Predict the structure.
Amino acid sequence: MTPGLFISFEGIDGAGKSTHIAGLAEAFKGQGRTVTLTREPGGTPLAEKLRAMVLGDAMDPLTESLLVFAARRDHLLTVIEPALARGDVVLCDRFTDATFAYQGGGRGFDLQTLATLERWVQATPAMRGESIRQPDLTVWFDLPAETAAARLADARAPDRFEAQPVAFFRAVAAGYAARAEAEPRRFARINADQPRERVWAAIAAEFVQRGWLPAPAASGPSAT
Ligand code: TMP
């Protein structure tokens, strides 16, 4: 059986992940793969309730961190692990790097506590105590906080994170950069500050290079 593939997508709000995630889902389906498209916080009925709280209700950074990790545990056990066991391609819009970037970087919350929660939550039965579940690849949409803020200016009513000032997003971006530096093999940094077709070409190249998609798959959202 083809082994499952776990890919997460990260970046500050306004980085433009959505179209490309959809494009990758189509590209993998075109290869006959079954795709599980999901997101964090969320992806299960329980985790979506927790998402509504995290995005809507005022709370301290520890509460926020516990809620996103609680949502992640439910999501991992009931959606991500079963999908990987079936051999699906799991495309997950945000995962734990977002917690290190937003709660750690943005909110300034203790990184050691986050690392402890990461070890607890991602030690799923499927990992048999050998390691913790991590994405096979994390596609990081990197762009300046100022550019992202300009893109979000006309967006829908902002949630608790989108409403933050540019300085918050600079700290979030620094949080992502630190995670990418610590685990360079897991991260693919994409320059998201360029036209959509070029962003897509950069992403497609990462997947082709790993042998996960054939070269012509680099049609995609640019064609829409
Ligand atoms: P989204 O708008 O990309 O769906 O993400 C929801 C928001 O939640 C986004 O602003 C980032 C934030 N978030 C955290 O603060 N911590 C986390 O662990 C995750 C997954 C998301």
About this structure: The chain has a mean pLDDT of 94. The first strand starts at residue 5 and ends at 10.
